[in-house]
Amino acid sequence: MIKTRLQLWGNKHFKFTVMSSSPFFNGSTNSATAETSRALRSLYFTRAAFSIIWVVLVSIFSKDSPEFGKVLLVIYPIWDVFGTLLDIRANKNNTTATPQYINAVISLITAVAVGIALQTGVSEALRVFGCWAVLTGIIQLLMGLIRRKSIGGQWPMIISGGQSVIAGISFIVLASAPTMGIASLAGYAAFGAFYYLLSAFRIPKTAESVIS
Asked: Structure pTM?
């Protein structure tokens, strides 16, 4: 009987302690969520700006300067490596970074593979690029679903991930078509820029609703 009463008292005391300290934990969580949202918002703007510049350069130089176009094709997945590492840094207070590290490794391997494939032809490089778009699109979609509950503003990233998978499949299937070339990837990058901008503008609003 005495042991049972002690256990009941201990449970009540534990509950009281947790309840009395919950404002502190909520404040820390809200602060971390706000910090993550600000960092991701800045990163999304940066990634959108890069994609826009890349689209402009590809549109201008892919036909008149094929060699420079090939360099741009290799640069795109390399930039994704840096962007993913910045994403991990921005999201340090939240979910596991394992999917992002996998994404970075895939992008690094893709940059090397694209460079090798270009020695054979652009169509082969487009197939490699298509495989990369499918894999990274799946990861982006999953990360959007994971982050949706914690910081919100991820629907554009979820849609972008799904669209990346579809675009990647089309690159693989249509790589040998006469109309396909490095310039064909401009639309893919442009849509990516659009979704990054949309996410950047949505995050502050959805983060406030999550915190409240």
From this structure: 0.78
